[in-house]
């Protein structure tokens, strides 16, 4: 459904440490970004797949990055354990807690998630969707029903 998702950040090094920490347990890896004339950025993908991509960018207009009110990026985790690991890694890498890992039955049976904010205040959700998955595929991602 998505080509890519982008969040604005003020310190790429700090953002890189945070997103490396939370995305590694989810099977995402940083990839090189080919300069295209835009602002400096970092990018993460699932190895072996070219899309979708997640980017952390310095704002194009040169003004400070600010978090969007009501905006959130949600990353799919392969297991509840990965949600827990990503949340803990994000806190250790400078994120702040917005909701400890645990079941969220009001979202669906088997829905397990955690919330944090990155060092720039962007809201991030890590979620295992047991409510819509039946088994892990060979790529380590949940298979949809």
Write the layout of secondary structure elements.
Layout: E1 4-8, H1 12-23, E2 29-31, E3 41-45, E4 53-57, E5 73-76, H2 80-92, E6 96-103, E7 111-117, E8 123-129, E9 133-136, E10 142-144
Parallel strand pairs: 1-4, 5-8
Antiparallel strand pairs: 2-3, 3-4, 6-7, 7-8, 9-10
Helix pairs in contact: 1-2
Structural overview:
There is one protein chain. With 145 residues, the chain is an alpha+beta fold. Helices cover 17% and strands 35% of the residues. The chain has helices at residues 12-23, 80-92; strands at 4-8, 29-31, 41-45, 53-57, 73-76, 96-103, 111-117, 123-129, 133-136, 142-144. The strands form three sheets. The protein has a four-stranded mixed β-sheet, with helices on one face. A four-stranded mixed β-sheet has the order 5-8-7-6, covered by helices on one side. Helix 1 (12-23) runs antiparallel to helix 2 (80-92). The radius of gyration is 15 Å and the shape is globular.
Summarize the structure.
Helix content is 17%, strand content 35%. It is α+β, with helices and mostly antiparallel strands and 145 residues long.
Key traits:
145 residues, alpha+beta, 4-stranded mixed beta sheet, 2 helices, 10 strands, globular
Uncertain runs are: 134-145
Distance between the termini: 17 Å
Order of helices and strands: EHEEEEHEEEEE
What structural class is derived from the secondary structure elements? alpha+beta
Record the strand order, biggest sheet.
1-4-3-2
Mean of residue pLDDT values: 91
How many individual helices?
Answer: 2
DSSP strand (E) fraction?
35-45%
Rg from Cα: 15 Å
